[in-house]
Amino acid sequence: MMTSTNVFKSPKVSLIVAALLPELGIGNKGKLPWAIKQEMKYFRKITSKTAHEEKRNAVIMGRKTYLSIPKRFRPLKDRINIVLSRDVEKLKLEIGAELIDNEDNLRLSDSLSSVIESLQDSDKIEEIFIIGGAEVYNQLIKDHHDLIDAIYLTEITYKDKLEMDSYFNLDKDLWIKCDNEKLKKVLESKGLHEEFEVTGNIEDEFKFDFTLWEKKIV
């Protein structure tokens, strides 16, 4: 059995998520059950930094995820933000001023697969990141897993059980964890290899490892 080796395909489509082992819980009542500063820094740097200075990354998220970001931080800077909604016209009314003020960095769409395909036609995009929430993650994993090249999964452990109501559905029959060296090469390509330890991280009694997963190829 082999794994895909095309780490630097451009633009590649990646899913990035932090989840609590063993059930891969990712949220409760629309919020993260933790505030791990190093993990948030990792998310910010991975999704905004590129290997090629002339290119940018894009982040795709659901409406609830976008609206959960404090207004002063949205759209996420240094990235093209695409927000998914079944009712784009209603969302336009909700965030109309933000769209006007950020016409180059903020877009709306009602189709996940279509927006991924449209971004893949751009030679100015290096990497497309799916950043949540659970419904968006799991729809893509279930219905369009062929569109995903890689999953950046932060594996978190905690001494106590945390209340969760949303989970990341990772099918381990289809995905396999890469060795640490492969993720380190990705970090190095973005100039981040000196900023993060891939394994053995501890903060506020949370232990966490940064991992990279790719589709299995039989």
From TrEMBL:
One cellular-component annotation, GO: mitochondrion
Pathway, per record: Cofactor biosynthesis; tetrahydrofolate biosynthesis; 5,6,7,8-tetrahydrofolate from 7,8-dihydrofolate: step 1/1
UniProt entry tagged with the keyword Oxidoreductase: yes
Keywords per UniProt: NADP, One-carbon metabolism, Oxidoreductase
EC number: 1.5.1.3
Enzyme class: oxidoreductase
Stretches assigned to the DHFR domain: 12-215
Gene3D superfamilies per the UniProt record, alphabetical: Dihydrofolate Reductase, subunit A (3.40.430.10)
SUPFAM superfamilies: Dihydrofolate reductase-like
CDD domains named among the record's database cross-references: DHFR
Any one Gene Ontology molecular-function term assigned to this protein's record: NADP binding
Annotated Pfam families: DHFR_1
Record-level GO BP terms: dihydrofolate metabolic process; folic acid metabolic process; one-carbon metabolic process; tetrahydrofolate biosynthetic process
Keyword Transmembrane: no
Family to which the UniProt record says this protein belongs: Belongs to the dihydrofolate reductase family.
Name of this protein: Dihydrofolate reductase
Organism: Pichia kluyveri (Yeast)
